[in-house]
Amino acid sequence: MACCGDEVVEWVLSRRWYPLKGVPPDEIITLNLGEGLKGFLIKVRSLQVFAPVTIKGGEYVEGEYTVEYVKSLISGGGLLEVRKYDEFPEGQVVVKALPTAWTNVISVVEVGGRKYVLKGYRTFSPELSEPRFLRYLSRRGFPYSPKLALEVLLGGVVVAVMTRYVESVGDGGMPFYLSALRYFREGVRDDIEVKARELGKVVALFHEAMSLCDEEWCSPREATDEVVDAWLSDLRSQEVKARESLRKLGIELGVDVTHVIEYSLDRLERSLNELRGLRLIRTHGDLHLAQTLYDGENFTLIDFEGEPGRTGRRRSVLETASRDLACLLRSLHYVAMFAYAEARKKSLAEVFHEFVKERELGSEALEWQDTVFNALLREYLRNTSLQEIQGLNDEGVFINSLKAWALERALYELFYELNYGTGYVYVPLEYLLREGQLP
C-alpha cells in the first residue's frame, strides 16, 4: 500500500543511497515482508529504490544489518523469493554492518560459524549485472570470484545476494600501493611483479570463462557499428554534462581542457572504429584494483556491477577483453600518483603540476607503473587464447585495442571525478595531457 508519514520520508531522504538528493519521493509503497519486517519501494521520477527495514527502539534500521532479516532469508518464504545455492549450517546468526561509501548496503553474516557477505541492492532494476555474473561464475566453479549462496528477488528483480565470505588481507590495490610507496621513498624494487603476474593469470582465466558463456546477457558476439556507436555516444553525453566543470577546471589550472577533451574524443573515435569485427565478451566492466581482494597469495574478483557513472544500458554492452586490462593500467596510474604524492609529502595537485612541467620527472615516477603492468600483461597473454577472446590471434591488434580503451577509461574517469567532486581529477587529466603531447 502507498504511504507514508513525514518521518518515513525524512528517513528515506537522509539515506546515502537515495538517488536524487533534495528531491522528495513521488511515492513510497510499504510491503509486509514478515513479522517485524517491512519493505519500502520508493519511486522518484524514473527511478525505483527498494529498502527492507525493521523498527528497533522506534528507529528504522536497514534490514541487511539485522538478525531478523537474515533469518527470514535463510528460512525462505514470504513476499520475497529466495533462491538458495548453498546449504546453510545450523546455529547462531550474527550480523556485522560493513560501512561503505557506496549505495549498496553490505554486512558480514555468520551462520553457525560460517561467514557470508550480504549485499542489498538499493537500485530496483532488472538490469543489475552482478547477480548474473555471480550465478554464472559459481555454476562454472570459477575459483577467483565469491561463491553465490543465495539471491533474493522481489517481483522477479534481484534485491540482494549472499556470497561466501572471502578471507583477505585487504583490497588488491594494497600490495601495489605499498610497493610503489617503497619504490618512491627508497628506490627499492620488491616482488610486486610476482603479484602482478598472479593477477594477470586470474584475469586471463576470467576472460576464458566469459568467452564460453552461452547465456543471452553474456554470449560473445562481433563488434558492429551499433556497438561502437554505443561506446562513443555514452562518453559524448558525459562530456556534455561535464562541460561547465571542464571550463572552470581549465581556468583554475591554466590549461585548455576543452581542447584536450575534443582532441582525445576525436582520437578515440578513430581508435574504437578500428575494433569493428573483433569478438566481444562480457567484461568485468570496472576492473580497478579495489575491485579485487588479496589474501597474501591470490586475487579474487569482486563487484561486478560495472562503472557507477554509466547507465544500466551502457553497462550491458559487450566490449573487447582488452578493456579490463586497460582499467587495470589506469588503476596503476592512480596508485603511482597517490604513492608518489605521499612519498614526497605533496598534494595530488602539486604532483600533477610537477609531472606536467617536468616531463622527465613524471616519466621516471611512472616507470614503476609500466614495469608492473608489463609483468601483468605478459602473464595474461601467456594464459589466454587471443583467438578465443578477440576472434583474431594477433597480439598487435590486442595491444592497440588496449591503448584505445585506456584512453576511453581516462576520459570516463575525468568526467566521473568532475561530476562527483572527488578531487582526483588530476590523475586522468595528467594522462590525457601526456598522451596527447599537449603543453
Q: Which radius of gyration do the C-alpha atoms yield?
A: 23 Å
What is the level 1 CATH name of the largest domain?
A: Alpha Beta
Number of structural domains: 2
Distance between the termini: 61 Å
| Structural class by helix and strand composition | alpha+beta
- Per the CATH scheme, the topology name of the largest domain is Aminoglycoside 3'-phosphotransferase, Chain: A, domain 2
Structure, described:
With 439 residues, the chain is α+β, with helices and mostly antiparallel strands. It folds into two domains: 2-164, no CATH class; 170-436, Aminoglycoside 3'-phosphotransferase, Chain: A, domain 2 (Alpha-Beta Complex). The chain is built from 15 helices and 16 strands. It has a six-stranded antiparallel sheet, sandwiched between helices. The protein has a five-stranded antiparallel sheet with strand order 1-2-3-4-5. Strands 12-15-16 form a three-stranded antiparallel sheet, covered by helices on one side. The radius of gyration is 23 Å and the shape is globular. The relative contact order is 0.10.
